[in-house]
Amino acid sequence: MLSDLFSIIAPVFICAGIGFTWIKLGQPYDVNFVTLLVTNIGVPCLVFYSLTNTDLHPGAFESMAFMSVAVIATSGILAVLVLNAFGIEKKTFLSSLMFSNCGNMGLPLCLLAFGEPGLVLAIVFFTISAIAQFTIGITITSGTMSVIGLFKIPILYAVILAMVFLSLNLEPLEFIANTTRILGGMCIPLMLITLGVSLVRLRIAALCRSTIFSLLRLVFGFGVGVGLTELLGIEGLEQDVLIVQSAMPVAVFNYLFAQRYKRAPEEVAGMVAISTAISFITLPALMWYVL
Hints:
The chain is built from 12 helices and no strands. The protein is mostly helical.
């Protein structure tokens, strides 16, 4: 078991460590370029290739999508209750407590721990989370609702296109499959390296409150993941992936939105950095639990 845990966790630490060390050595790294590249090209290709090259039953997709919505919604409800109880502004912190880093950390972990079937289920969770974050998340942070944002998410079109292929029982042409496989393959390492870069560059403010909220995000995520899967009788691979994805730290995109809309970006950056640091410590226990 210890060797299995090490083989899963070590690549995550090493890739993130490369990004961390790269910046510490004073080397250039354009986070905006890499983020745009991964978000607009890499992730859609990864989603399309993974969904069209899986043997999972279609019912598993529907179940995973429903459970993903349930996890995010439940986390949001708990976050609202806590923020209201302490009289803290929801526009600044609600999104950070709702949305986990199920992309940069969750996808690599699920791939390493559960293989391709686990990655496909993790992608379903990530897709639901991304759509919700770029619609509901932006609405919470900005204070205004914009349906147009939904149509600016490349991953949405990748999912729709993959569902067309699956529903018609079609296989993509070989050159399409190969191209999307190669382009999608860049996502996992770049996500982890960028995570390491972000940890160096983020500036922490209000250390005490950021630490408390970081702990809440991790506790909420793990508790909601375990609680809902037990309550609804979700078992096996789907349960394991849901728990891992929901127990991830604060998503980096929360910081980008906070910075864009001037919602205490330093405190949100602190939540991203601290929750990620804590999760690196708790990761062995989390993976031991699900395995």
